[in-house]
Amino acid sequence: ETMLIVLPILCMAYLIYRGGARIRTAHRDVWDAMGRMHDDVTAVSAAMIFGVVLNGTPWMEGLEIVTMLSNLPAAAIVGACIMVMALLGFVGVQPLVAGTICLIVLTGGAFGLSDLATGISVLAGWSASSMLSVSSLLVRVTAAQHRVPPEQLVVGRNLVFFAAFLPVTVLLVMGINALS
Fold first, then answer.
1. How far from chain centre, in Å, is Cα 48?
2. What is the average pLDDT score of the chain?
């Protein structure tokens, strides 16, 4: 709340201090960025709508896969969430979309996970998705910094790290779930 009030005031003070040319440049840059932002907003909105519809449809309760998921241990659900998000990131799906759908599905089922454990599972999946996606900024910057092709980084060290990251993260999330 404080940032929403103070930050715009500080930005305007800076722009006024810098002068009219800086204000025009900032206005043009913001306007251009807003024009490109509609794709991201559309993707996130579609993911949220899909997740809510998927979660709220009565026929989902009767599907055998939903019943099967409900009967799995919570640790398997956490691992599956992280794994699915990682695989989707590997094939190029934005983690924001995969995370939104996973979050909505996980909060709608009786999986034995606390809200905190659910949120951490999705964040861990997001992290895994980012480190295994050739198009993620994290991989691109690291690859450029170390002069390694992004594909080699993802399939090499990042995949090995993910193999260790997944079970450790599942254990940590289950410990948090037991405490919350």
1. 13
2. 80
Give ∠ CA 89-95-173 in degrees, rounded to 5: 95
Distances (CA, A) of 138 to 71, 94, 129, 143, 161: 36, 13, 11, 9, 15
User: Is the model's pTM score more than 0.85?
Assistant: no
Q: List all residues 6 or more positions away from 82 whose beta carbon is below 8 Å from its beta carbon.
A: 121, 124, 125, 128, 166, 169, 170
What is the tens place of the pLDDT at every residue in 55-106?
A: 666 655 555 555 667 778 889 999 999 999 999 988 888 888 888 878 877 7
Assess whether pLDDT exceeds 60 at residue 179: yes
Residue type, 77: I
The rounded distance, in Å, linking the Cα atoms of 59 and 42 is 26
115 near 121, Cβ under 8 Å?
no
Q: Can you say whether the dihedral through the CA atoms of 103, 108, 109, 115 is positive or negative?
A: positive
DSSP state letter for 134: T
DSSP state of 136: S
Q: At what angle do helices 115-131 and 137-145 cross, to 10 degrees?
A: 40
